[in-house]
Amino acid sequence: MVELRNVTKKFGNFHAIRGVDLNVRAGEFLTLLGPSGCGKTTLLRMISGFDAPTEGSVWLGGEDVTHLPPYRRNVNQVFQSYALFPHLTVEENIGFGLRMQKLPRLEIAGRVQSAIALVSLQGLEARKPGQLSGGQRQRVALARALICQPKVLLLDEPLSALDAKLRHQMQGELKRLQKMLGITFVFVTHDQEEALTMSDRIAVVNQGRIEQLGDSAAIYHAPQTAFVANFIGRANILEANAVGVEGGFIRLRIASGVEVLVPNPNPSPTTSRLVVSIRPEKIHLQSQRPTQENVFEAVVEEELFKGPTHQLEIKTASGLSLSVMAASQSIMQTAFHKGDRVWCAVHPNDIVILRAD
Amino acid sequence: MKTTRHTFLLTLAIAVLALPAMAAPKKKVLNLFCWSEYVPDSVIKGFTKETGIKVNVENYASNEEMLSKLLVAGSKYDLIQPSEYTIEALAKANKLETLDLSRIPNFKNIGAPFKSLPHDPDNKFSVPWMTGSVGIVINTRKVKDEIKGYADVFSGKYKNRIVVLDDNREMVSWALATLGLGVNDITSENLAKVKPILQGWIPQIKVYNSDSPKTPLANGDVDLGIVWSGEAAILIKEHGEKFKYVLPENAHMFIDSLAIPKGAPNADAAHQFIDYILRPEVSKIISENFPYTNPNMEARKLLPEAQLKNTASYPAGDPKLDTFKDIGKVTKEIDKLVTDLKNK
Amino acid sequence: MQTPLALLQPAHGAARRPGFIGWLLIAPLIAWLVAFVVIPALILLVYSFCQRDELGELVFSFSLENYWRVFGYVHDESGAFAWDPTYLQIFGRSLGCAGLTTILCVLIGYPVAWTLGRAPDSRRNLLLTLVMIPFWTSFLIRTYAWIIILSENGLLNGLLQYSRLISEPFPMLYTPGAVIVGLVYSYLPFMILPIYGSVEKLDNSIVEAALDLGAGPLQAFLNVILPLTRPGVLAGILLVFIPAMGMFAISDLMGGKRVPLIGNVIQDQFSGQARDWPFGSALGMSVVVLFSIAFWLGTRRQPES
């Protein structure tokens, strides 16, 4: 549906985007996730037409739109600040796009009514944006964009101005609308949890490049780079030496006394020095030495109680520090405290070999 | 300019107020209210240097503006520079101090033709400063026909090539002249006769300018002008043969004079100033700066030949010209007539 | 919609009665207004009912004569009223002249203000300074500069003749066009600055939203940008129209004083030949009253936002 082909964008000497290829499938909810300044908004603005790529091309539904102005592209955007027209009422704001298409008044009125119903704004038709709450403005912005029946809806951090509770509610509503209308959504956010909850696929953007593109689970469980592993959730990023191959596994020495097996990826790594990522919650702690592979011993150095979880910092005899996250104390689970000696176990599939950069 | 002067006056006032303890003699001043570009700075400086009297100068651009400030706004001046008809009106209304000619010995330098004129028959109120005529200045490069009088200017051939003084009474007097009437024959009947003439003239005029009618002539925006003789003299002085000055039949002259308004706080200083500018060598400086007709016969002797030959300043044969008399209420009628015609 | 006055007032929420300190702070303003606006206006009002004597001195009386004259009723010789719309015509012509000046100022000033308001911060101050530089020289000097440019032996004609676009000098100075050029030149900054204020406040994403929703540049301008910058445009119109209406120096110097405008007529009454202060006061008061009515009508109709 949307395709960026080898797109580069420079602002003066600054490379905002460096050779990005991206293909957004029809009907999917794709999130551009990354820290501020990474280029995700620039990507969005090149799709909407507010910025033109320095190199490469933008395609929309099989058509090259690289040089079309925004008002000739069948995409609509929900702006971060909503950008409602302060001098127009809710009704006039929502009907703006249709008026620009010079549709008959009756048709506009009908479609505005259904759009208002769609986002549950009945009764507020005659208000001006200044008289609305943040959530209501958000809905107006959404209805105003959706009423044009765009091929793609672009959303630029649309929830960042809302408080946490409203944000969760709107996340659900957005997802529901997207499923119901079957419109392609390209969603920009810096909030990894929001991205994981809502997206079909996530493109993690860093320094003008897409670091990894995949569905939520793949992004989380199999990060390809240290940046992705760190940016989404927490991770222990560790340097390791490959010391041998055992069947379908590689034996890695992370530190003295800490040797683990990981599945040998295809293709196999070309060097023996590798970087791996282990999520804190994938390190299981036990008081007795477990019988399985990939176990090592450590001492609890710090403990932090975080409500549903319990975060521990542990250290092995050889000095390797690791973060571990366990579910809070329960009957099923032994709680460990500072100074306790523990045995750690990690499943080979939970250790991810990262792409070297 | 005004602000600087006010600030200066204020500073002076504070200084004066702070001084009495030292019993310093009060500094003498003269408040001079004169035409802009008519009194050379060097003359004022020379006077102050010699007498120690400080001169505060304020300027105006027309007799009427001067009257407004003097009469309606009630400002205090020691010396004013009115033209003859204004002197007559002010004298009639008892607004002028009588001059003490015994304190103005240099009055003898004024030529006989400029003394005892109708507006001040006994020389009681005024001393002539400069005189001049109103006449026609011609750009000889552009105008080849012979221009003798006002009717030639407004023949229709020079539509939109004419500058005239922005002065309603002047315009009426020119029209009267073409009718063979005197410049002071202003009655309602005569104004009715003048009206159709002016009606024909006004659409031909490109610029009205009393302050500097030489400017559009020098810039080539117009080719003919009915202007003060001094303006014409400057054009001739600067551009030579290119410009010519013609004194039409029934032309009139004006006599700009010095007079002391009633109740002037420093009448003594005013007398001193009048006598000072009547000295031949001082009067010569004025003539050099502003080439009008100098009524000071002793000063004329000091002027260079070239200036005396400038026909705008010193027309051949020293023709005897009329002067404007005060016409009182009729001013309003003239004003109405010309405003109406311009508005059409 | 905001009225232009709203620009000068605090936001609605802040519109409380001032306390003692508040009064103390605005006291200089009130004193200034009383000394330089209220008292002179009252003096004019009193004068406007007076008469002048032969010499031009004020005669205190109470007469509506001056106002009758302004609005076209004059006594003819027999003492009966006669219709003479001279001053109404002059007033109408002045309105037209000021109106044309205002329209041209909007047409030229808006794009300039837009460019200024959208320029990057680094360049904006420079551009603003350029707009204001003309104010650093005296108004008369700037007007004389125009005379030097426009006269037949002047710079522009010289340039056109040198480049052989024209063979004979083209009369530009002392024409109605020259007056309009002078007026537009003098008042343009008063149009640019308030519009710039509005443009600068306009959130760029609102403009982008309009483009995004399918509005072409013209549609976005008419439907979004213009309504949102209207307070600036209205303030600019007031700042240009009213002084342009009273201006006399430009029509004197650049127009050759050929066609009287209301400013010339009023000036003529005070320091010019006519020297009729009472009538000048009546003309001035009439202009003030007409403006007040127009202003009231213009702002009254706008509903509160």
Q: What is this structure's SSE topology?
A:
The complex is a heterotrimer of chains A (357), B (344) and C (305).
Chain A: E1 2-11, E2 14-24, E3 29-33, H1 40-48, E4 55-60, E5 63-64, E6 75-78, H2 90-100, H3 105-118, H4 134-146, E7 152-156, H5 164-181, E8 184-189, H6 192-198, E9 201-206, E10 209-215, H7 216-221, H8 226-231, E11 236-246, E12 249-255, E13 258-263, E14 273-278, E15 284-286, E16 295-306, E17 309-316, E18 321-327, E19 341-345, E20 351-353
Parallel strand pairs in A: 3-8, 3-9, 6-7, 7-8
Antiparallel strand pairs in A: 1-2, 1-4, 4-5, 9-10, 11-12, 11-14, 12-13, 14-20, 15-19, 16-17, 16-19, 17-18
Chain B: H1 2-18, E1 29-35, H2 41-51, E2 54-60, H3 63-72, E3 79-80, H4 84-92, E4 127-139, H5 150-153, E5 162-164, H6 168-178, H7 188-201, E6 205-208, H8 214-218, E7 224-228, H9 229-239, E8 243-246, E9 252-258, H10 267-277, H11 280-289, H12 297-300, H13 305-309, E10 322-323, H14 330-343
Parallel strand pairs in B: 1-2, 1-3, 5-6, 5-7, 9-10
Antiparallel strand pairs in B: 4-7, 4-8, 4-9
Helix pairs in contact in B: 6-7, 7-14
Chain C: H1 20-48, E1 51-52, E2 58-59, H2 65-70, E3 73-75, E4 81-83, H3 86-118, H4 121-132, H5 139-150, H6 155-162, H7 176-201, H8 204-212, H9 217-246, H10 249-253, H11 262-270, H12 277-300
Antiparallel strand pairs in C: 1-2, 3-4
Helix pairs in contact in C: 1-12, 3-7, 3-9, 7-9, 8-9, 11-12
Defining key terms:
heterotrimer; A: 357 residues; Rossmann fold; OB fold (Dihydrolipoamide Acetyltransferase, E2P); 2 domains; six-stranded mixed beta sheet; 20 strands; 36% strand; B: 344 residues; alpha/beta; D-Maltodextrin-Binding Protein, domain 2; seven-stranded mixed beta sheet; three-stranded parallel beta sheet; 14 helices; globular; disordered N terminus
Q: Based on helices, strands and strand pairing, what is the structural class of chain C?
A: mainly alpha
The CATH superfamily label of the domain at 88-274 in chain C reads MetI-like
Tell me the count of domains of chain B.
Answer: 2
CATH domain fold name of the largest domain in chain B? D-Maltodextrin-Binding Protein, domain 2
Mean pLDDT of chain C: 87
Taking the alpha carbons of the first and last residues of chain B, their distance comes to 38 Å
| CATH homology superfamily name of the largest domain in chain B | Periplasmic binding protein-like II
Rg of chain C, nearest Å: 23 Å
Distance between the termini of chain C: 5 Å
- How do the SSEs of chain B run, as a string of H and E? HEHEHEHEHEHHEHEHEEHHHHEH
Structural class of the secondary elements of chain B?
alpha/beta
CATH class bucket of the domain at 88-274 in chain C? Mainly Alpha
